[in-house]
Amino acid sequence: MSEYIIKNGHVFDPVQGIKGDKKDIAVKDGKIVDKVGSGAKVIDAKDKTVMAGALDIHAHVAGPKVNAGRWYRPEDKHFDSHKKPGITRIEGGKSIPTVFKTGYEYARMGFTFAMEAAMPPLYARHVHEEIHDTPIIDEGALPVFGNNWFVMEYLKNNEIENTAAYIAWILRQTKGYGIKCVNPGGTEAWAWGLNCLTIHDPVPYFDITPGEIVTGLMKANEYLGLPHSFHVHQNDLGNPGNYKTTLDTLKLAEGIKPKNTFGREQVLHSTHLQFHSYKGTNWGDFESASKEVMDYVNKQKNITIDTGNVTLDETTTMTADGPFEHHLHGLNHLKWFNVDVELETAAGIVPYIYDPNISVCAKQWCIGLELALFAKDPMRCFITTDHPNAGPFTRYPRVYAWLMSKKYRDERLNTFKNADKVIAGTHIGGMDKELSLYELACMTRAGPAKALGLGKDYGGLKAGMNADIAIYNINPDKFPSSGAEIEKAFSNVAYLFKDGKICVEGGKVVDMGKKHTFWVDAKVPENKQVMHDIREKFLRYYSVNENNYPVPESYAPHQHIITVDATKA
Amino acid sequence: MNTVTLTVKKQPELYLECENVNPDAFAGKKAADIAKLGAYQGKETSTLGDYFTIAGEAGATAADTKIVINGDCTKMKYIGAKMTAGEVVVNSACDMYTGSWMKGGKLTVNGDVHSFCGLAMAGGEFVINGNAGNYLGAAYRGDWRGMSGGVLRVKGNAGSDVASFMTGGEMIIGGDVDIHLGTHMEGGKIVLKGNANRRVGGQLVKGEIYVFGKINVMMPGYKPVGEKEMEVDGTKATFVDYIGDLGERHPKRKGETVYGHLYMKK
Amino acid sequence: MPKEITDVICPFCGTLCDDLIITVSDDNKTILGCKNACAIGAEKFNHQRLPGRVKRPRMRQADGSYKEVSYDEAIDWTAKMLVKSRKTLMYGWASTSCQAMSIGHEIAEKVGGIVDNCATVCHGSSLIAIEDVGVPSCTLGEIKNRADRVIFWGCNPAHAHPRHMSRYSIFPRGFFTVKGHKGRKIYCVDCRYTDTAKCADEFIQVQQGFDYELLNAFRTAARGEVLPDTVGGVPKEKIYEIVEDLKSARFGIIFFGMGLTHTMGRNHNIDIAINLTRDMNDFTKFAIMAMRGHWNVTGSGQVLGWQYGFPYAVDLSRRDQARHQTGETTSVDLLNRSEVEACFYIATDPGAHFPVDAMISSSRKPTVTIDPHINCTTEISDLHIPVAMVGVETGGCAYRMDNVPIETRKVVEPPEGMLTDEELLTKINQRVDELLKAGA
Amino acid sequence: MAAKKITLNMITCRTIQQGVGMEAGKTTQKYFDACTIMHMHPDDMKKLGVWKNTNVKVTSSVGSVIVKAVETREDLVPGLAHIPMGPWANRIVPAYTFSTGEPCFKGFPVDVEIAANERILGAVEVLQDACGLIRK
Fold first, then answer.
1. Taking the model in full, what pTM does it have?
2. What DSSP string runs through A181-248?
């Protein structure tokens, strides 16, 4: 395997606290090393920015609802499906790119990892078929548990150990990475056309509340000592006044301590917080609650968040929050897709246009940016667009530019149709903060890597770490004055190293690399009760046989298996 | 306004994709440059010069460019598609996508057109002096934005699924139409001089359909609410006013429900 | 000593039953028995050992007879045909594995093919409708566990999906449906009094071709508006009565089939049925599902979906872009208009299932058919390449009618030296690469 | 006095026998028996004056095919006829798709006349015959 030496780049690495100093990075056999031989290929990074490969902690990039969103929206790519010269395949889709475009575009932007944010266990085989076909980037997937019959029945009686044993079984069957929870209880209620809007609403027939589900899953997560924490999409997403429910949910983490061997410090990751930080009682008096929410997050050390930035595009919303999508369809009347998944979850899809001329959309744009700008600890706040819900991930460069240039975001803010109304209902107008490259490295590299329990090998440039490296055409000494330039620089890396191999050069994909599928194998004490319950449920309620449920090995040819042992718990 | 004249000199074996035959692509080009523009049959890329003799030169902009096409274009797709200005006159029948996604200018076809013509037309004037196929002025698959502006005039008959998802603009059909006229319509105006087969205005939210002839089977979701004396496309007549589709959702304006209207000439 | 293989997936219809038990001889060569399968599924497994099965490719001769050729010759002929043709119809895929499809798409992208699957003459109409208005649906287990109103509209599972009613829709007892059939009200809407109708609590006979009007009447009634005295032969009183009963459901489901997709209006019949389902969700919980026919036609749509963003009729003929327009890039239209120069059929039999005019057009073009058995299409093709039966002699992923993927199982060895779809397509792909490199 | 020729509304659908026959093999007797029949309503048979299990010639806008008239199990209304899907049915199915990709498998008019002594072609034969691949 070849050796490289990346010379004279401005290095930004929160793992080592390096803030733009000129430093050489040596690469050998897929790892970052202290030094390499004289034969090493030299990469001139003079006047360039060098960071670790970025990690997307929350994106919908593979699986049944993502794909439904693709094929039921031919109009999303009728004029946007092209093959670029070179080794790449045809790339289609604006709001939901095909698997090929997904891999290429992430790589071109300097990403080396993306976490599929919601995997219905019954559809795990589909998720992994798509991950298998997505080039270059490493991926993992989070199975959803928040409306799972086993989980609700165990937690009703506060049986953390059984819950954990079941979760461990599911992670193994589905090659899953951690515990995702979407609209706890609300999605099961949706199977009857109902919902749970607070953490106290009882779940029909299951005699449990969303709050109990959240607490139980958090405890089960720490019982198992998984690399990632409990990852939640709270109840009442997208409604004015929902920040109260958001705070109620976050407070459930108080007093719960992280227990793991991966250096992870949070016990709860609150995702696409923008959608959960709304004040007001209706869309008329709708206002930003980013301050209230971030004030709490900033002082609560065992919580991490991601933003869910609205990019003001036409996109396709999709979530396991079935009732929300039905609600959204009632608002915009665009084509509604819904799937309820037996014993486990549901999903909905509705196209949505974030129109800058509509003040609600403009305020949502403000709130997303405010979250990142209010964040005191960039290692606990990560930038996402909840792809494709608030906008396609291909817009990250523009979001970065808005966050790094007050001028750029004010240009946008002041040209909104109802700018005054928008500014009055939000904080952004008065915020001068501009993110630094170092903070960006925290929010897109070191931070998400640490929160996912991957901090030892990913998200940094320390010797011994995996050689996933992004080199951008940005000279920190002459930082681009225009937002458009910042966008351009982050859209196409000068170089992307993946596992020590150059996969992108000058924005062009030159190598498909060797993508890995990350999953967690959790060892738990033998649990006859849970195994019996599983057999029983498959015999009586599932529509597939237990033996046809697991994801076959062949679906993940290059596995990166992280093992945890909870037998001594 | 400069005129470029294209004369067909060779027929494609399959169908020729002529996405470059429109004033926007020709603007600022001399005959020789126009001849170099691409034309496609499957994976074979050739040039307009291979299929047409090209005379004259285009104006500086689309607006001052006129294109006249002579010879048999029955197997040519995308003529005038996406044009934003200028004029195109085709003295022949054309294949699919003629005048689709048209934004401005004037397109005249002195012959029949196949299916998917005038798709999602947003502006300009499109005149078909023959018959039209299916999905005339409809939306592209999956899109809820069909014809939104401009005027589309057909002298003869049109096929099925005409003006699906229409949101604006005006369509006048001189002859008859097959099934499904104005399905999912949410605005705009359709004038049908002849007869409709079945399923007129199904799932219609908003908009107006005027029918001078007969409809084989009326949709159950339509209900007569009175008569109106009106002048429609130059003809004065009494029309029975049906509101509908009563099975579909309808917007409210100032508390009042806004229905779609189907006007049947008495 | 014969052995039993359990949890075997049935590669016949979209129900994708996964509880078959197949007995095979100890040399893994012969299927001796088949439990739990329906009559059709059982026949498929029996077919594996029928005498006279073709084991090597066959090339048609000038005199119309067929001569055996080697796999290498067949692969070379196929690759050359694909590379030469400016536009090739690559149709079928519904009876092969998703893994095989992937390789096929790679070939199509290189040679300029139009990839279309059996939905094109089956549930293509449904896919158009879903593209237009979406679809509120669910997995089959949800029906079993929750549904108390079940409507079969223009579908006949008793004949087309024989175990559907017992596994999911009418008879099974589930978590919230402990009474099974007794707890469910079954409606059947059809122009014929089918065997499915005979299992229903209520049969509504609609005049053939009037489904759209009747569904419009259902929606109109649901909004409390007036109706004509009869719609499609159904009295308005009956329509109001049914709509009220549907509103009182806890969980309702509409299953539909060819009765809607093939009749006048095609996609619009499904479109409005979906809209009725959507309306019903304002009153209670309702879902709707297409009764997909071929066991893996859904899978083809899924793979095309994640690779190109369209469910079928994917036009890659320009090689630098993917396009999709039913009515233009759909197989029957391409053949009617003679818009392709060659035909590549795999895991399907258009000869039996396309209208004759389309096949006459097809028979005038160079044609390769890849199928385990002799069928109508193989006998009008220039070349027939036999392959192992997917789901019987080799595994691979398939998607059920509710889009749930299940990895099918290999139960016996294919005949000596016979290639699988995956192996064959891989070799064709390699040969295509060689030819393109050589600038052929 | 029975009519020489009657016009019916034709639909082509799957039957379980057709499914079984198809999986048994397109060239098998099972398939032939399952697909070379036309289900008719007794009233229509009377109108045409045709006995059960008599061969009839069915003609649509695209062509003709010989099949065997049978009394239906799955009741049809008078005026509606059904031939199971397969090469025989498709010999008369109009290929017109209304630009949807789906031909007119269901709901097209056909003329039916008695053809007691005409032979029903085999599955491959009926297609090869149409494609002009049979050397006469």
1. 0.98
2. EESTTHHHHHTTT----STTSPPTTT---HHHHHHHHHHHHHHHT-SS-EEEE-SSTT-TTTHHHHHH
